[in-house]
Amino acid sequence: MKSNQLDFKNHSKALNELVFEAKDLQRISRRTIHSWKQSGVLDEKRDPNALRRWNYFSAIDIVWMGILNELKQLRFTHTEMKACKEVLFEMITTEDNKEYPALEYYTFLTLLYNQPIFIIISYDNGIDAIWMLDEKDYFLKLKSGEIENHTALSLHKAVKLNLDPVYKLPNFSETAGLTEDEVEILKIMRNKTFKTIKVTKRNGDVDSIEGVERIQDLDKIEKLIESGEYQNMEIKQQNGKIVSAHRTIRTNFNR
What we know:
Blueprint (H helix, E strand, L loop, with lengths): L8 H7 L4 E2 L8 H10 L16 E2 L1 H15 L4 H11 L2 E3 L5 E3 H12 L3 E7 L3 E8 H10 L5 E5 H9 L16 H11 L3 E9 L2 E11 L2 H10 L4 E7 L2 E12 L3
Antiparallel strand pairs: 1-2, 3-4, 5-6, 5-7, 8-9, 9-11, 10-11
């Protein structure tokens, strides 16, 4: 997907709306929440001037508290939790050329694309590195030895447990160890709208993927023609009316 087609702004707004109450939390007491706020690992969002200062939380708050609860069960100190918070809420620039906290962005990937993400906490006489990695980068760092003694938390599990039933736990074992090219080919092959798929290789590597997509939605056909979002399109007519179209989509891999 092209970067100019991505826009996480509305997703960010939805994830940050204060719509959850304390009763929506899983396995977390009010006393624990108060302790986290006192130590600074959880931000206080209540209006200090309100007559009744009710606790309301966003989806990101809920996910973060789920992660904090996992760290608590693993006996991480509040100081170590704050170190994790600094990294997970660090602002990063994403594909839509906007900045979001890292945890928020990776939650986008988890919710929108079922992308498995791991929070890796590496330690040697204390925490020395914290990463947020997909399964491919996680396995590569393990293989290279860059990651040795560590704790791994699954973001998709935190989302599943704390935002259920809006999220379905992904099955990522099928793609573990595959290259980016192989994952892209698998995604296209699983897309039922493609009639044919052609993979071209050069020097042993995937050079391009070309798929022919069948489209029967007339409104979509009209919009595609107007926007020119195709390399080649064949229009099928019946009794003078358009009934379907076949669009060729080509993806080139930069080497």
